[in-house]
Amino acid sequence: MMPSGGPGPGKGPNWGPGGGGVDRKLASLAAYTGLVGSLAIAIAGLEGIDLWSQFRWGELDHLRMAVVASVPLQLLNAALLLPTFSTNELPAGLKALAGHYVSNNPTADLSPAAEAAFAVVDVAAGELLYRGVALTFLGHWLEDRVYEGGLDELLTEQLPAAAAALGAVGGGVGPVASTLGVYGLCECAVAAAVTSYVVCNVLWKSERAVQRLELVMGAVSSAAEKASRTAAARRGASGDAAASSGEGSASKQADAAAAAAGPKPGKLQMAFGPGTPAVDVQSAGRVMRSSAAIQATRDGAQSLLLNAVFIATGGNLAASFAVSLANQLIISALQRRAMQRMRKRNAAFAKELLALTKAQRKTSKGAVQASQLVPEPPKPERPGKASQAPRQP
Prior knowledge:
72% of the residues lie in helices and 1% in strands. The protein is mainly α and 393 residues long. β1 (269-270) and β2 (279-280) form a beta hairpin. The termini are far apart.
């Protein structure tokens, strides 16, 4: 499941696999889902919204339309989670985002059946709050403001007429506006605002992460450069002392001169996953921003699609619930497949690393034994001392 990309923006805490145990995760997930559902029922009671009448399962044409409309989103999910992380042609931004989606699965430790059962309850609670209550209430509130301001004719007559004057480009605005009416157009405005918030929130969080990375890596780079300069100054001072006393070879003097000239600037590098080359801090920022742009596109498309299905079906929660549940189940299956692939690759890499370590130890042990078998060279005789003739038997 997506930790924050279900029926609405910011859906739940950002848990990852491991840490705390399955029981603690289940308690946290159940508490959050229960809170969302309870809020939906409580607010609906206060505002006089009949949530259960919005589930119109008998309108099969709405369900078929919702399934067809969700195909592009599922293709986008597959494009993010199906490719292997070891594919060198896959851009680093896509790799980083795919790793984020795979690792941030709050129900990864559950069995597939338990995860599917929880998804049904979780999606239902989200649909009740985000679309059954929030979108419905905000749509009616904005509709009242439109009528109070006398803008109903502007929305339903003047703007469609102006769009029709553009020809084929805006010719379809009039029929859509007349079909939706003032309330439907207000719902569209709310949905557009929510989608904009989802996109901006992803980009803003990414920009903050990039700024923190640049700050930390800049501090580490400055500390490393300072330490390198201090060590170079010490080597230069010792080299100057050796040169002034006439001791030290020419190579040592050359090393001292190179050290005194100062260290060569180095670049801190980082990688975003297996098969991804290491990049410097500036390139890492570009990778993070491109990853955030892809995530914002995907999450914005999901929010826009689910709200559009609800609005186009006249507020049918059954249609948006079916699309949202199918979306979560498909994502969960893709996440589990990608996680299994990662574990197999990590296990194979661990075996290769162990074999390489054993080979290095064997080579090192053989080199030590060989060095012990080499006889010591004869000691040179002192100058001015005659060598003794070998004794005759």
